[in-house]
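Help needed: design a sequence for this.
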């Protein structure tokens, strides 16, 4: 009798996945918002317990799962945990797109949020705009966007260009001269051209739905 072979599907490492892929898994029902959020909250509790106010996050995940069960199409940031400075009005745009907003402390600058994104504690962050956004991206090897949203200067921090473009589109903006893009220090001029094209493409796809 031949031996029985058991095929084991490797576990998904949610901490390393881009925001757009996490949202896609939730939208199609392969991953619940609660199952996405739980390991992230555990990592925060262990490694950065005072980084953000997470008290309302579990309830937000429950609501998103209920919406999907009732056939409601979730947004492009479905259940993506986003670290957001509490005084940014633009945060509601991320929430409207399905993100689970983790409220950061007002006295924490972009450097704290950048470290959290780089250390894979959160996939993306929305911070106050300014020179510190570019400096943070350079220090941590991240992609950053500095832009104006309805008169408010904000910064986007992400681990790759497509995730940055996803947030850019959710914020109702498009890539152009008014948006300052910072890429990792080892980015070549040719790579920058590719990155800018990916930004435009990501935003265009989001606008097309």
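Sure. Designed sequence:
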């Amino acid at each position: 009798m031949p031996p029985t072979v058991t095929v084991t599907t490797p576990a998904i490492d949610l901490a390393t996945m881009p925001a757009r892929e996490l949202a896609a898994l939730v939208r199609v029902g392969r991953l619940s918002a609660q199952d996405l959020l739980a390991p992230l909250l555990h990592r925060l509790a262990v490694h950065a317990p005072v980084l953000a106010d997470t008290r309302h996050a579990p309830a937000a995940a429950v609501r998103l799962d209920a919406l999907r069960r009732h056939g409601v199409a979730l947004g492009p940031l479905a259940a993506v945990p986003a670290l957001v400075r509490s005084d940014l009005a633009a945060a509601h745009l991320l929430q409207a797109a399905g993100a689970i907003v983790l409220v950061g402390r007002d006295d924490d600058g972009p450097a704290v949020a950048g470290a959290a994104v780089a250390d894979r504690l959160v996939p993306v962050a929305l911070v106050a705009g300014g020179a510190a956004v570019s400096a943070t991206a350079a220090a941590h090897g991240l992609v950053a966007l500095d832009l104006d949203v309805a008169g408010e200067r904000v910064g986007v921090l992400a681990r790759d260009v497509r995730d940055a473009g996803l947030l850019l589109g959710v914020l109702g903006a498009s890539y152009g001269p008014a948006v300052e893009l910072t890429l990792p220090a080892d980015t070549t001029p040719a790579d920058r051209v590719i990155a800018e094209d990916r930004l435009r493409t990501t935003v265009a796809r989001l606008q097309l739905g």
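The chain has eight helices and seven strands.
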